[in-house]
């Protein structure tokens, strides 16, 4: 019962106001409504504050920040910090800017997301439409794997990547993200395919369609929404990862998050806050863009990954 | 359900029956080796004299005894308890409050929700960078308020070993509370309205209605929020690194940063492995009952 309610809630993400089931039956008075709008507005400001700080300070000269003007709009607008963060800022030992690391992140994210999504779809298909003895156990093991503290695998993984010759390389990072991404992508597709009528699969089977034909012709055409959810989730997670990047990459293969941290934490020279903020926005832009374009799917992924996980 | 039509067993039939399992097996093998095998490996290491590299001289529980005798580990555990409990409680209070307010037929609800939730799309390193400089007394909030003429204003938590851990709470709550709001809002929208209408006709006040009828029905949402937040708190690493780097000194050390520094920079791999085992056990204590009940409910 409870699980049904939650399944409904996550399937439709959050239903709009006025839809059947909206719990709002209480009439609130005028003053109360003003207070509610005020509070909601204040929280909007709270959530937007760091974004505002990052944006305005990435567009002003360093001297304005040092003079205590962090909250004000730039007096002299400049895009110089952006140029510097992108191509000339000192990251670790070399003055390369963040550009090569942005590329590293893209090279790492694309294959890792694609492969883990494909595997997740196949796994979800098997676990719901070709059930076998002990499949719940198999799924439980995949599920628990999503939540382990990765500190538990750092030491052996570092050894293994060394043995495979993948230590400190982008392919090594792809491998790691693929391995630890399978659990979540399987979870998404399994929950989604569970709602899919099994009768259709059985009917196709009687007509002589095989395992892959059924997947391609019947399951895949209706998998669009969940594929989007899964891709967005994996993209956001892998792009934002820091622990694996910091543990398993060399200077040349660092992903964006690690490079940004190196830029901000570097203790030599003057702290160029404006460059740091510009770099932070660069690291945030891809996932932020995905959120703005496909926020609905992002929220669905969050809910399915947490409420049902 | 598997096919029940009896068939003669031939090569193709065997393949057809085994195909689904064959498709699933690479993923299962990967998880068995790289998750469960690795867990076992680290578990074994925690009983050995490993230093820079894994070695297999058995030392029994020595690493655990050393670990719990270390001041840094004590600080990490205390910090996790302070951070974790404040993080969970504040996120739940803010999240529930905002969800209830947003559930009052608010105009532009979708827009407000988008603003509340966008921090979840950001990397903790980005969040950490933004808050690190915003909380920095030299240029951030303190400097700004002083430049506005309030010369005596002081806000130096991030530099103060006693208060620094609370700055991590501030940034972490900022990042996740919108998400907790979304969980509660989904819960609120799933509640049966009939009971509420009846209670209202009986003359229950809005406050009583929420306290007696609505909030108790949000139990599953509270459970989910607790599990998600507790698990995120134990795993917190990026945010601490970006915001305080574990400092000032070791003031904001947490188990995740402790494990990393003992294993990879202090060359005490045995102790690092022991700390990872403790982290896994605390997460398992939260996740296993939850996953078990979820899987059983669904059958």
UniProtKB/TrEMBL annotation, chain A:
Source species: Amaricoccus macauensis
Protein name: Glucose/mannose transport system permease protein
Gene Ontology CC terms: plasma membrane
Record-annotated membrane-spanning stretches: 34-55, 101-125, 137-158, 170-189, 218-236, 277-299
GO biological-process terms attached to the record: transmembrane transport
Compartments, as annotated in UniProt: Cell membrane
Topology of this chain in the membrane: Multi-pass membrane protein
Domain ABC transmembrane type-1, first and last residues per copy: 102-294
From TrEMBL, chain B:
Biological process, per Gene Ontology: transmembrane transport
CDD domains to which the protein is assigned, alphabetical: TM_PBP2
Chief localization: membrane
Domain of life per record: Bacteria
Membrane topology: Multi-pass membrane protein
Domain (ABC transmembrane type-1): residue spans on this chain: 77-292
Localization of this protein: Cell membrane
Keyword list, A-Z: Cell membrane, Membrane, Transmembrane, Transmembrane helix, Transport
Pfam families assigned: BPD_transp_1
A cellular component annotation (GO) from this entry: plasma membrane
Membrane spanning stretches: 21-47, 80-102, 114-134, 163-188, 269-292
Protein family (similarity comment): Belongs to the binding-protein-dependent transport system permease family.
Protein name: Glucose/mannose transport system permease protein
Organism of derivation: Amaricoccus macauensis
